[in-house]
Amino acid sequence: MDERSGPQVERQSEALSSDGATGGWQATVLTLFPEMFPGPLGLSLAGKALNSGVWSLKTLDIRDFARDKHRSVDDTPFGGGTGMVMRPDVVDAALAAVEDRPGPRLYLSPRGRRFDQARAKALAAEPGAVIVCGRYEGLDERVIAARDLEEVSLGDFVLSGGEPAALAMMDAVIRLLPGVMGAADGLAEESFEEGLLEYPLYTQPRDWNGRTVPEVLTSGHHANVKAWRRREAETITRERRPDLWARYCRNKDQAEGR
Ligand code: SAH
Which UniProt keywords apply (predicted)? Predict the structure, then answer.
């Protein structure tokens, strides 16, 4: 593949070149569905960043590490119950093949610590991440322990596989990488950046079906705009997310020495 012009995507079948380090954020994804990647991350901002080497992607098909003639990756759970469990030996062999890849070892799982903006920022500061996507009922507990995988959850719901969770998590990280978003300001004022949800946004037309734009926003008075946005962000956060609001108030009190 032409390293300069092609997207920085590698399938496991292609050898990882020794000078494979692009300097960008290196995502390594272990999955039973490598075709799902880069998927939506091949388009728009993330896609441009992939093409220009801001980040790179290596996917491994976990099935390639199955040893029996049926290439089985899963089996029935000991103790009974429904569904199938991914075999520890197969997943471990896949992880052994990416020991040289940088970053924390993550397993997307509803039991994990909830992914949030702080974790996205921390991951963006890493050289990359190795991401294991589960299927069926999930991974055998022993490979999670043996490989010290960090379980990361997207939220309190159950997906049919880790892939959409991995894509969402990677999206949150990639847009924080230097050079992906244009204005750094855009990032600074977003939801969660100051522990608040975002204030309401308006654009043209000024009057849309009788709904007008708040006057302060068209006043040209920057300090007033800023104060209005802060008040709105606080109101929205207080109303919608008491958990975030309580934390914000605590931090504010602390900062003000109360
Ligand atoms: N039996 C599991 C659910 C398995 S869902 C349980 O009850 O906890 C199959 C796979 O989808 C999981 O292995 C995981 O990789 C992925 N997955 C499902 N929900 C997820 C979530 N909320 N966050 C991250 N990954 C999730």
Answer: Cytoplasm, Methyltransferase, S-adenosyl-L-methionine, Transferase, tRNA processing
